[in-house]
Amino acid sequence: MLLKNLKKKGMAVALALAASLSFAPAAFANNHADTGWSAYLSSWQTSDTPNRQKQDASSGYIKATSVSNGRTICSWMLGYSNEDVNSATVNLKSGQYQYVHNYAYQKFGRKQVHMRLQHAYAYSGTTQAYGVWSPDSA
Amino acid sequence: MINTSLAKAQISRSLTSLRMVSVIAMSIALFLIQYSTTHYAGFRLAPGHELTFLSDVMLFSCHGTGSGLYLFILPFLAALVGGSVAAIERHSRRMSGMLGREGRGKIMNTSLASGFVLGGIGGLSPLLINLVVAAIMNPHMNFINGDVVDATGLVDGSKYVLIYSDSWLYPLYRFNQPLAILTVMLMVFILSGLFADIAVAASFFTTHRYVEVLIPFVLSMLWWMLPGMTNFLVPDQWSHMIFLFPAPGGADSRQLVQIFVGMALSVCLPVVISASLVAFKRSRDVS
């Protein structure tokens, strides 16, 4: 009985160790996994991606997988409450991607941020766009 | 034929009018909007680039919202300065005397000619004022490389870009910057002059004051909205609001063709509209 208990405890410890080891790289990595965004842009209106946490001083990343009708959009990074993070502004067409230089981490430390999207031109009507982004880059 | 002394009088009267003063005030407001939305927006321009005064000039800088606003109200500015030359003569009751002396054809041609020049000046004023102020503030004109996209689609966002390399203006900008500036100025002048001529031609039919000033603006709005209304049978690039703003680039080979078609249409259509209105007015007066 005692041996059985020890065996069970030993297995639990081993499992816990294995689990913590398997998650260890994620704990040390920044937030560079791609997540999707989509937007309907009209005239001068802006659209935001969901917020994600900025975890280091690397550039953000954004890819426009598709921008309808061959249009061009621009994007830049802002803080959770639209704080200025000294972000670069970037232009994107379908299939293009960019690293977005910013100072969010230097100014605020770990901080929820999002990318703001807008037409690069004063287009009439709406533009459908979608792609992926991450607050940090690898 | 035109009456040059009447044309000179119309031009000098309009250039010293309250309308011209309001166009200058709007030009200053546009420059302030362009400057503030370039330097105090929620983004920062890439640091350490070569200096050029064009970085604060509407149409030549892809940053800031002044360019879009400028092109939006361009037909209104043009018509405000040049579109009412004939209407002002009529409302001040000078027209009937002039018609007796000169004949309707000559008065119409003179009004169209002076309207074209005045519209060109009115439409060009914001860009000209912006160029002069920016050149005084930052007297440099270095070339900024706009070639930042590699074959995989990665855009080098660390570099400052003034005009993207896939813009129709970029080859000219790379070849000779003053020539590129003059080309854009000439295009703005011609289109503004033609917008004003639509207003002048329309004013031969209007009875109320100021109505003619709004007509080019409304027509330009309809033309701009056509892509959405026709499910993009009419491309964005046919509107002056897109092709007169070359800085953001983004034009593939098909869109470049559409831009040049748009430029040709933007010259031909106002000429056809103005000429048709004038011809209709003449035929109606004869019959």
Explain how this protein is built:
With 138 residues, chain A is of the alpha+beta class. Chain A is elongated and about 75 Å long. The longest helix of chain A has 27 residues, at 2-28. In chain A, 23% of the residues lie in helices and 39% in strands. Helix content of chain B is 66%, strand content 1%. Chain B has helices spanning 4-15, 18-39, 66-82, 85-91, 95-102, 104-137, 170-175, 177-203, 211-229, 240-243, 253-286; one strand spanning 154-155. In chain B, α3 runs antiparallel to α6 (104-137) and α8 packs parallel to α11. The relative contact order of chain B is 0.15. Classes of the chains: A alpha+beta (138), B mainly alpha (287). Chains A and B meet through β5, β6 and β7 of A and α3, β1 and α9 of B.
Question: How would you spell out the order of helices and strands of chain B?
Answer: HHHHHHEHHHHH
Largest sheet of chain B: none
Q: What global shape of chain B is seen?
A: elongated
Helix fraction of chain A, binned, reads 10-25%
Total strand count of chain A, please? 9
Helix content of chain B: 55-70%
Residue stretches of chain B low in confidence (pLDDT < 50, at least 5 long) are: none
- The oligomeric status of these chains comes to heterodimer
Number of strands of chain B: 1
